[in-house]
Design brief:
The chain is mainly α. Helix content is 68%, strand content 3%. The chain has two domains: 66 residues; 106 residues, no CATH class. α1 packs antiparallel against α2 and α1 runs parallel beside α3. The N and C termini lie far apart (57 Å).
Length: 180
Amino acid sequence: MTHDIASVYERRCRLLMRLAYPPRFREFRGAELLSTLLDLAEPGQRGPTMRESFDMLRAGLMLRLREHPPPWHWLLYRVFGARLPWRYRWWARDDIQGRFFVERQLGAIMLVWIMYLVWITSGLPSWAVLVMMGLTYLSARLSKAGLRRKWLAKHEFHPDGTSYHVRPRPGGEATERRPA
């Protein structure tokens, strides 16, 4: 019975971590956070308390906001494919490897197409705009893996998401060096 309660508690903590924290944090610090939550749990507790849940959601949101690029960098990255500054490259990696990356990119690009073609020129019929947007979407969907590889390389990551600049230390830890 206690094993079932512990597994329910652990599942609820993992769900809360997935909702609150970005993938990179969970990858590097998730086990530490989970073990802390499991250590603090009362016997027979079936899930995190309301206070613990609120604190985790707040901390995860603050982490996401702190690591998010400023609006002007984000807009250039999202619409024009510009490379983000070094400080935000791990955020870019999470974004590129995340679900619906292609759809987010295409949504921003299509919004620019609509603004340009409809509002500025307003000479093209609406069906032509839809056809162009559809072809853009189709071409990006067909080359999804290549698109991810290209964007990861632009931000100095290998196709599997590991950094070009991670050097192994003698003790087994890895450190990241910023290129000169």
